[in-house]
Here is the input.
Amino acid sequence: MTRTAALDQFFDTLYAIRPVDATFIGMHTHDHRLPDWSRAGHERATGAWRAAVDAIRATGPATPAAGAWEDIDLALAAAHADISLLELSGRHFTRGNPSLVAGETAFAIIGLITRDFLPAEQRASWLLQRLRQVPAFLAGASSTLAEAPLPPSWQARAVRESEATERLLLEGIPLWCSAMGLTPEHSNAVTEAAHLAAGAMSGFRLTISALNSTTDEAPSAGAEMLAACIALGHWVDTAPDELSREADERFAEESSRLGTMIRQAGAASMAEINERLAARRPTPGEYLGAFARVWDECRQVAEEQRLVTWPDFPIRYVPIPAWTRMAAPSLYYLYYRSPAPLDTVLPHEYVVTPIDGLDSAAQNRLLSSWNDSVIKLNHVVHHGALGHHVQNWHAARSPSRIGRIAATDCASRIAMLQGGTMAEGWACYATDLMDEAGFLTTDERVAEQHTRVRILARARVDLGFHGGRLTFDEAMRVYVDEVGMTVDAARSEVVKNSMFPGTAVMYWLGTQGVHTLRHAVSQREGNAFSLQRFHDAFLAHGSLPVALISRLMLESE
Here is the structure.
């Protein structure tokens, strides 16, 4: 088998095993399918991944080097297959997490009804086939989950997501059919299948609630899985224990800096800063237009200061569609979901919480939460503008086949862990960059510093919990006592951390990696260094691990 053929087999395996992910990536061959998470399905997936990685390794060693894109992809593909085999061998992921089952069901539907990548009638045809498969998918997954007690926090999350998915099926699907103008025959068939799927979802929820629970709120994935995520996912060769010590030191430094910045801003606490930020907010009439206005301002500053070559990649801020609005709050429903890299649907729609129809008290609460600072830092700079959106444009054009798709937002996480340090590292770095450019107010700079502290806290919990140094309660205390989260928010965060080892740490690893690489390249190039040229060259790699990109860029000359 040739190296190209081995890589083709890898992608065929990826899309066949994860058909819902394939929909979000823009590979529509499997849009009519759901995965098989029964015991037999897991065994088939294990065999397929073993065959894929064996085929890759049979072609000889793949040594990543600048410009050797096929070797880069083969090395990353083998690493992803190894991580997938580790996941399939234990009960931390699809074998033992009911939340993943609920999420997969919900987003198998949402992936077909929230982007107009093909005419509605075609998408409805695939949706009908998926809906008819929901009972069998849930039955197979339930039989696997029943093989051992379940973590109670994962059970509770799965119940919430199942209830939301039932609402999506019973209320959302009819709204979508009507909005799309489907023929009565097609609409009736889809609606009937949605009702049957909702019944299966209700049965799944009751089954999950009745299964035995573990004594631990949520399990650690263990040191072996954590180490694999760090080494094979992020391509970082530092041991997790050493990373943990470094994260502790950096957390102390950044927390001290935050205290200094709060005092310099004339405030007594972060809570006071947050109150001041909440008071600066758009009026109800200005709300939706504020996103586009700040987006234009961000682009203007980035272009005037030559921070990056800004692509022609239009985005439109719109309210969450009526047909997913009832389910969105309880699901992994992202306001900015990455554009499918293998599709071309423009302008890309960034969904926001709607304000129309709310009474004045509810509008005030919404605007306090979606204040000027949140719009600027989160929904524009980090996600919709210089951060994720600009990076996603470059990723879709990467010479690396894996670099094009790895960071695509899928049902419960991104398509491949290897894309995480680039996607989140660049987005966090982008906010640092706009801070350097003078785009942030004093209080917004303090808020951004608080975000840096929170990112380091998440890294500490990720490394400590899965490395066996923090219990669930101790991890919660990190967030409550050292970051200022409420108990409920801290609990939710630890539950999420428990589900996806090596994920929370990627924000810190990625951001630090970009800063470190920028310093090294600027030192090497001296007066010839161009920030715009550096950023363009960095982003051109696509969604590859930042540590790998650093190696490629520093070894290229």
